[in-house]
Structure formats: structure tokens, C-alpha cells
Amino acid sequence: MQNLFFFQSAIQPYYNEKHKVLIIKGLLGTFYLNFKEPINLKIGQENLTVDSALIQKSYRNTYFQIVNNFCLGLIKGFKRYLVIKGLGYRTRKRKNWILFKLGYSHLIRYRIPTLIRLKRIKKGKLKLISVNWQLLKQTVNMIRSFKKPDVYKGKGIRYKGENFKLKLGKRSKK
Q1: CATH class entry, domain 2-75
Q2: 78-159 CATH choice from 3.90.930.12, 1.10.3660.10, 3.30.1490.20, 2.40.50.1070
Q3: Distance set, CA 166 to CA 110, 149, 172 (Å)
């Protein structure tokens, strides 16, 4: 069985059989993907063919999705937005660190990974941009874990467009 990865002319893949590394060069950077098992890759003009008979079934779709995300990230990049809602909640960017004031007795410092760019759009809104989808999701989830949205008041860090119902308090049930 074979899987086909289609890519645009902006992507230049190369497979090093000796080290089992797929190198993908694109407009926004370069990615290196190490394979656990030896695989047969054939690089054509506009596609990448993988002989998946050598790959276990559990890895087949995972490899396909990882390579697909790398190609998409190298062409157009990925974006995630965060909204910080709450009285007195603040953010400040210092070089490659971001400082959060989230109602605790201390500031929370988080080091931004090198592949991620952070922009403050407005007060209480953050935009994270990266070519690596997995790293971007991991970073956004880590930032969100500093102050998850409160189900009673709605304060905290949430994704842009995330909707959830506020719970009623004890006094509102009557």
C-alpha cells in the first residue's frame, strides 16, 4: 500500500536514507523529520510517495498527517488567538519572554519558543504565529493552563471564538 503526499512547487523535500531523515524546505523555513523505521520514499515532481508496507498501521496516518502539517506550515504558517478576560489581567512581552499578571500574588513568566512569534493585537488579545502546528498547539495550551476560564464568572484565558455557558450560582437557582 502506498500513500501520496502532494506538495506545491514552494516545497523541496529530500530524504536521507542513511540517517532516516526527511528534510523539507519551504518559504518559511526548514523541517527535519526523523523516522523510527526505515521507509521507502520516492520524490516526484509534485508528490512524495511512501511505501507504507514497511510502516506499521498505527504509524501510517500519523506520518502522513505530520508531513502534511509541515508542508502547510512551510507554505502559509499557522495562527492561534488567545483572549485574556478579567479585571486586572495583563500581559507584557519582554524579548523572548511573556509576563502574565493573572490575579495571583506573583507574575507568571513564560519563555516563548524560537519558532513562535507572539503579537499583542489589543489589550487582552494575543496572536501566536508559527510554522510548526504541534509546537503552536502545545504553547497555546500551556499559556491557557495558567488561568483556565472560570465557569461561574467567565474570567481567564480562552481561545478566540470559544463559547461556553456560565453556570448559575447558588442564589440564582430560586
Answers
A1: alpha beta
A2: 3.90.930.12
A3: 29, 10, 12
